Description:
Blueprint: H1 11-15, E1 24-25, H2 28-37, E2 41-46, H3 51-61, H4 64-73, E3 75-80, H5 85-99, E4 106-110, E5 116-120, H6 134-147, H7 149-167, H8 179-191, H9 208-217, H10 220-235, E6 249-250, E7 258-259, E8 262-263, H11 264-281, H12 284-301, E9 311-312, E10 315-316, E11 319-320, H13 328-335, H14 337-347, H15 375-389, E12 397-398, E13 401-402, H16 403-420, H17 423-440, E14 441-442, E15 445-451, E16 454-458, H18 461-478, H19 481-497, H20 531-546, H21 549-568, H22 577-584, E17 588-593, H23 599-609, E18 616-621, E19 639-644, E20 647-648, H24 655-663
Parallel strand pairs: 1-3, 2-3, 17-18
Antiparallel strand pairs: 2-4, 4-5, 6-7, 8-9, 9-12, 10-11, 13-15, 14-15, 15-16, 17-19, 19-20
Helix pairs in contact: 4-6, 9-10, 9-11, 11-12, 11-16, 12-16, 13-14, 16-17, 16-18, 17-18, 18-19, 18-20, 19-20, 20-21, 20-22, 23-24
Amino acid sequence: MTNHLAHSLSPYLLQHAHNPVDWxxxxxxxxxxxxxxxxxxxxSIGYSACHWCHVMERESFExxxxxxxxNRHFVSIKVDRxxxxxxxxxxxxxxxxxxxxxxxxxxxxxxPDLEPFYGGTYFPPEPRGGMPGFVSLLRRIAERWExxxxxxxDQANQLTAELxxxxxxxxxxxxxxxxxxxxxxxxxxxxxxxxxxxxGGAPKFPQHMAVELILAxxxxxxxxxxxxxxxxxxxxxxxDHLGGGFARYSVDGQWLVPHFxxxxxxxxxLACCYLAAxxxxxxxxxxxxxxxxxxYLLRDLRDAGGGFHSSExxxxxxxxxxxxxxxxxxxxxxxxEAEAARFCGAYGICDGGNFEHGRSVVHRFSCxxxxxxxxxxDRTLRERxxxxxxxxxxxxxxxxxxxxxxxxxxxxxxxxFQVLGEARYLEAAQACAAFLHRELWHGGRLLRVWRQGxxxxxxxxxxxxxxxxxxxxxxxxxFDASWLNWAEALGEDLLARFQDPAEGGFFSTEAHQGxxxxxxxxxxxxxxxxxxxxxxxxxxxxxRHLEREDFRLAAEGILRCFGPWMERAPRAFLGMMxxxxxxxxxxxxxxLSGQPADPAIREMxxxxxxxxxPGRVLSVSADQLLxxxxxxxxxxxxMAYVCRxxxxxxxxxxxxxxxxxLQAEPPAL
Length: 669
């Protein structure tokens, strides 16, 4: 017996296709049903790797008694938040306004006109921990809908008006000033956990945007915050020491026990963060973390067609983390008694365990003096244990391909090639871009979602912006101008379809979308930089390659628009500090004249790539067709042109001379 989700493509929706609840996907049919029957909508939003979504399904949505109440009194709609981030953002704002908190699974009750009037997150089947029982809550809402509907409609109307008011972003008149960096860094200093790294208490989430701001703008004493945070995230259990990559977050304050789901967007961004740290510090361990994270994406999340899948679940065999944790006996079975003792000492596997059921999360924190393994032994034993672990039942994988998350992965692979110099990352980036163009670029329109040969859902702001920046990173890796051409088309789409010409900035959706009660203009940076942050970053970088003044002005319009908000709450806009830094920092353009495969050009590229040069723009061309190469170069001779601000140095013809020019970088403004 299946419900209306049976023909969905989303793995999350398909997980619920056999529930006794008469679920519908979000769409015209379900919305029309609610209007025709004048029933409230029960909207449940989640994603396939969400642990508590699984719990609520087992407890409530598989329960015939719950299904009977839902089916009798509500039109029940399931939404995959990863397919429809616009709906997720809009109704998450409603839940947070109603309750002061948010999360998934998200549970929202709407009028047939899509206005929210009640909401929350996870509800247990019976009252527990101060939360109402789900069945009794459903009955109370149904009774009020029948007996006091005008009051509920009025409540929904007032809440919608408040949400609309909160969503209004009136453009500022000036660009934020450099003093804003000091304000943001000051907030980070006050929130820094000097013992364990990170900013704030449990649960602890990856802080790549904070680290990137510190690396780019922090004073010498601030760098210690970045270093401690990077090291602690890597040493703890949030990092998968066997397979590479990071879990979503740590449930405790010391990065020990993770929430085990692994997301493409986290790992793509953290790989870039560790690559930047390697450039900035020269420390080999950051290159190792980046390499292992990128290799995790290639090995476990890559689609055969070249794109990247979305996530791996926290659960396997019905238990959270079961795939990832070990007893000493497990290690002995995998490695033999002698090697097991060494590994357990180095990675904190103990008899009592540090997780549930006497099992241990693999970590480096409790490694005793002298117990660390020599590097070669460490690599060998970790790989042997990984292969042994792969015989277990793996967590489920969400194998849909999302444009925006793949744009982030495209950037990560391209930058991995630049910094680490390993060809497999460039090949992966090229294959990813080719996949996105082939499968998600239809008739000059970018789509968001692909799975099993089918693409759907028009791309949102974050999709266009993330893919645009990924293409810029790819161009700065292989210097194929066709990537810039596609990025330019995406930039023009951003301006035509999403820009607010009156107040500046960009809406997350196009104007014609009819299933939203209003459009949002996203600015706050969360796990992923906001769509406006991504747009500002990508458009600024592309404007410098193409000398497109309209792209630069649009990016500045974003920063003007959100400037007053940034000044009020700097820590909520750490990602948007990046394009602000790019705009205020003295411009650095490096244009190399010659063929990318020329050994002399490759030596020059190594000099550029090994350095931490925030905001630099890099181009290689053998002709004079791109703006950075106009009037430059001589046939058959490799030459480097370096310009800072409005001053260009004389061209040089050797990597040694280029290094001297790059070392002359002045301090940030």
